[in-house]
Amino acid sequence: MIDGMPRKLPLYVVKQRGRLEQWVYYFRIGKGKRVRLPAPNEPDFMQAYQAALSGADLKKMPREIPQTIGWLMARYMESADWAKLEPATRKQRSNIFHHIKEKKDRSGIRLADKPFTLINRKAVMAGMEDRADTPAAANNYLKSISSLCKWAVRNAHMDANPAEGIPKFKLDGDGFPAWEIEDVRAFCIKWPIGTKQRLALELAMHTGLRRSDLVRVGRQHLRGNVLTIGTQKTKARIAVELPQRVIDIINATPTGDLHFLVTEYNKPFAVAGFGNWFGEAARKAGIEKNSHGLRKLAATMAANGGATAHQLMSQFGWSNSKQAEVYTRQADRERLGVVSSRIVSEQLMNELAPHTDQREGSIPESETKTVS
């Protein structure tokens, strides 16, 4: 599978590159008229496909009612903004929009068929409250609606973005748990040099790449020991130096021609497939964490070693300093805490030093008398 899509498309479904370089899918029998379909990994695909299969007249295939919520979402999902999103983000937001559209009001009318003017601040906040038990899902809902409305404002469908300024829910913890160095040791014991699992860990730690980039990286990205690649998510171009030890591990491991990490069938990993494969390898080593946690450990180690926010941005491909400062701030706090504790110790030593030679209860020498 590529980006979660099936290798073989259903009968009468064809695809072609759109003007924005994204794949566009159509239903077409023979040389008949083409009917636009959602992407196969989107939740509305099967319903649209079945409707196209069952209808003799494809013109009667259900379409969104203009100026409705369903219509607005459909236009957004045909836009350049949507095409620029990562496949995983498009899939996530497509699912969120699908559930919104299929929800019915008290009269049994789908939200998809109601005017999009009902998307106001009160409605968005109500959607957040409906998802309050799962804060991460609520925040993803808010980001999806905000992006939809931002696009709608820019294209003169809305006067203002009703989601703007609505606060996200605070999440417990810090998302994916970071690996500890003890976890790395346990993984290395389970997966020795020469295994693909070990190579995956070494590449993740030394490059700090996301899994969407780890599955793409190969020898074509190496110039000597320097690895350079444009990241999928932020489009930032990063360069990192691999130590000779890692180059030796690459040479000692079965790899593909253009991909260091390949499946047992010598094929490149899909992003989701790699995540599942690496997660299973971690569990076999007794570690209940995923590959993103390695990226966190690498960033933490770099910050603790003195890397600046801009150095972290350059390695990890962050587009602004906000994420980098999460790591540098913690590292700075620890370093400053050590420095501060030393100052306290020095001050105490300076205050106590003049009295350390006098034992408690002793008589000063000036007060003693000579006995003859």
From TrEMBL:
SUPFAM superfamilies per record: DNA breaking-rejoining enzymes
Family the UniProt entry places it in: Belongs to the 'phage' integrase family.
Residues passing through the membrane, by range: none
PANTHER family per UniProt: PROPHAGE INTEGRASE, PROPHAGE INTEGRASE INTS-RELATED
InterPro entries reported in the protein's UniProt record: DNA_brk_join_enz, Integrase-like_cat_sf, Integrase_catalytic, Integrase_recombinase_N, Phage_Integrase
Keyword DNA-binding: yes
Signal peptide: none
Region (Disordered): 349-372
Name of the protein in its database record: Tyrosine-type recombinase/integrase
Pfam families in the cross-refs: Phage_integrase (PF00589)
Keywords, ordered alphabetically: DNA integration, DNA recombination, DNA-binding
Compositional bias segments (type: Basic and acidic residues): 354-372
Source organism: Rhizobium oryzicola
Residues covered by the Tyr recombinase domain: 174-341
